[in-house]
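Dear all,

This email documents one entry for the complex benchmark we are building for the journal club exercise. For each entry we list the sequence lines for every component of the assembly. Then comes the predicted three-dimensional structure of the complex as a token string, followed by one or two observations. Please use this as the template for your own entries, and keep the labels exactly as they appear.
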Amino acid sequence: MTNQPQRSPRTASVSAADITGEYGPFAGFDRIHGVTFDGNQVWAATGEALVAFDPANGEVAHTIEAPSDAGTTFDGKHLYQIAASRIDKIDPSTGRVLHSIPAPAEQGSNSGLTWAEGSLWVGQYRNRRILQIDPADGRVLRTIESDRFVTGVTWANDELWHGTWENDESELRRVDAVTGDVLTRVQMPHGVVVSGLEFDGKDTFYCGGAASGKVRAVRYPKG
Amino acid sequence: MDSLIAASARALAAGDPLGALRLVALREDPSALALRGIAMAQLGDFVRARDLLRRAARRFGTQEAVARARCVVADAEVALAMRDLRGTTRALQSAAALLASHADLPNAMLARLIVARRLLLLGKLDAAAQALHEASAPGAPARLAAVHALIATEIALRTLRIADARYALAQARSAASTARVPALSAEIERMGDALMRPAARRLQRGAQHALNLDEAAALLHSGALVIDACRRGVGIGNVWRPLATRPVLFTLALQLARAWPGDVDRETLIADAFRLRCPDDTHRVRLRVEIGRLRTLLKGIAVIDATARGFALRPTEAGDVAVLLPPIDGERASLLALLADGTAWSTSALAVALGVSQRTVQRALGDLQAQGRVRAVGLARARRWMAPPLTEFTTILLLPAGWAFG
């Protein structure tokens, strides 16, 4: 562990999460890891399969059999999925794995995954940090330290957000992508945990609900 | 939760402990240690499993109290599988309370079922029944409901409430078929077989016939005066006078009951009770003293009349006298019958009860232990012996559960 500067929580604005919708649990799948949004459908990683549903009505459109143990993301064309110790690049129309890279190793507890500006960003749960990696070969480009266990990660426009989860307490946090300083905290109700996290590009976060088997929609905080 | 932990838990749930181990073998964080512990337990290495689970519990920080409590429950379950009944259940009880307060009701229920089973193994039937009552949870997962009903069956069996046992067994069977866990269904079938097997023999006017548990229970509740050589005592209805620690008195009572309604001559009584062939006058005095003690113990349910050649038993209220013998003969049968009362016996108490030397008891126990029919708790002077319950449960641990450690 490196020496970290003390971060004052008073600088961050704190609010309670405004949960606007709940999806699932989906028949046959009892937990949700990563989530992503392809512009039309929400994709949720369940361990054995990726489930795509319509956020308008929650109906499952299709599923792809794929080992899916943590974060999921969409780069505009392909899905990326963390499976055990690798990241698979998947064609969403066929479910075929096109390419795989090793997930960041070094006792990594890889959890969340998102795509932005040509890079993959990997949240490491117990290591409390976010890595920026090269999607071609998995090389680590940058490390952002956090002071909480990091679950899902996502970019909301030019803001970096990540989920935290410690002992049935979860928050969505906006952090400074350079220093890791916490800028905004959105608190989930007690017992509602966030595994995966995704911003829909407009006003909504989708949050994977781990063992609840649910995906929840949370409004982007005002102010 | 991270990908390797999720993948490892997925492998465990799919019944692949080796695959689960492979994914987290080199990791030392508490979630990985916990999953390695569960995998080792599924592979049968209980000692290593407990070490891993305890290390995991220590490493989970105060921010991860739920994960820590799950480790405590898993460790207790492995301890139960090892029949390590040392220590208290305090940690387990507080883990149950914490899990319940965090809405992890299945694991809270599991913790309480472990407490009940532990008490049952120790033969503390009342406490086990109380713990089982506290473990009840509406809407519990089927596999836990099945285990709950199995424990209820066993408590009912050991207190000879056979109808209750059958009812609980039927509940266990239906829950187990919902849960679809083969090991659990097998346990229930074994328990069903135990209900059918001969449980005792009744001796009546020189003839013997086998009784199953129903018939034995019916006899015990029939209002007859029952001299019970299985549990070593004399009973009528709800009255029970234990003679397990008074072997001479029990032998006398048994001889008198066998001869009922006739009498038994003094020489026979002396030879049997004192194990002597050539009695003299001092033994007749001793016999009188022992008969006096037996009269005191049986006061209110039977009297012992002196006859010209010896003594005769006369029940004061019951119209009938029945002798109940263990289902099989021999010293080991009575040893098992003694242990079947559910209490933990010391070797010296068994020797007193059977009227044989401690060495003889130790030899017999050694053989029975090798056959897995009795087990010991504690060491040296504190060692106590117990017969297994009517069934040996497989551990709930071996069932794939929703293990989530972080």
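Observations: The radius of gyration of chain A is 16 Å. Chain A touches chain B through 31 residues (CB under 8 Å).
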